[in-house]
Design goal:
Layout lengths: L3 E14 L5 H6 L8 E16 L13
Antiparallel strand pairs: 1-2
């Protein structure tokens, strides 16, 4: 039986809520931390591709940037 790889692309609207000790810390935060609460308010499938990877290792098909 051959292996099949599926790659899906989604567009999401996400809200992060996080608490800080000062307004300066909140203003300097660039990315949400692991402690942030997450709410996904919308999710939309953009596209999905499938391909047969028969005889290949799934880990060997990783694209290098």
């Amino acid at each position: 039986m051959s292996k099949v790889q599926k790659t899906s692309h989604y567009e999401m609207e996400v809200q992060f809520d996080e608490f800080f000790d000062t307004a300066e810390l909140a203003a300097n935060q660039k990315m949400p931390s692991d402690a942030a609460k997450i709410k996904i308010s919308d999710i939309k499938l953009i596209k999905a591709n499938t391909k047969i990877v028969a005889g290949e290792s799934i880990n060997s098909d990783v694209e290098q940037q």
